[in-house]
Predict the structure.
Amino acid sequence: MTAAAQPARLLGIPLGDFGFFSALLLALAAGFLAFFATCFLAIIGLLFWNILGHNHVNYADSYRDVAFPIGLAVLAFGLVFFTGAWLRRRVSR
């Protein structure tokens, strides 16, 4: 295989054999995973911040200020990466 025909890899997993719909689903799944993981970590962080610091920060801030922007950023990056891998495979045929 030439360098142009090799599929994109993420942690050694070839990602170039997915169709367009699969690429969109993978990007959406990555965005959801990032949203929920950072939301969980932000809520746990706010829990400790409120308990240890005797603060009264609203837990909804973890969704709005942390999880939502990170989820959107990962979704945008995933759309660019996965659709780019799909386009690269389509063009190199």
In short: Helices lie at 20-53, 60-91. The CA atoms of residues 43 and 70 lie 14 Å apart.
